[in-house]
Amino acid sequence: EIRESIERDPWVAGVTVTREIPDRLQITVVERTPLALVHYHDLFLLDGEGELYYNMGAPASKSSQRYSKL
Hints:
5 strands, two-stranded antiparallel ribbon, single chain, mainly beta, three-stranded antiparallel β-sheet, elongated
C-alpha cells in the first residue's frame, strides 16, 4: 500500500519498501530525470525511457497523472 501510494507520483520512477524486523521500514525512491521538453498538444517532460510523465501546461490537479510512452 505504501509503495503504490508513492508510485502514483509521476516524478517517481520506482520504489522499494523493505521491512526490517522488528519495527522499521526502509523506503528507497528513484526519481525520474527530465531529458527533454516535448510539445505534443501541451508541454510535457520526457524521461530517458521515452515516457511522458508531467504535463507542464495542465492545472496542478491534472499535471500529476502519468502518460503513455512515445
